[in-house]
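Revision sheet: structure tokens.
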Amino acid sequence: MDKPLTGKTAIVTGASSGIGYATAITLARAGAAVVTNARRKDRLEKLVGEITAQGNINEIMVRPTGQSFP
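Predicted:
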């Protein structure tokens, strides 16, 4: 079965809980590479673990808010 979002990238802000969390999971299941952003790094890591455990890992980037990156 083809995943409709294969080859697409989705950015989800507020991904550590609620609708952002659910959206990130849904997009990953649909084949998207997911970039997540939220204030709580521990919850973002939990999200990545859940997506990975379901076998829906495509590509996930975790970016906690409030950090600068080179």
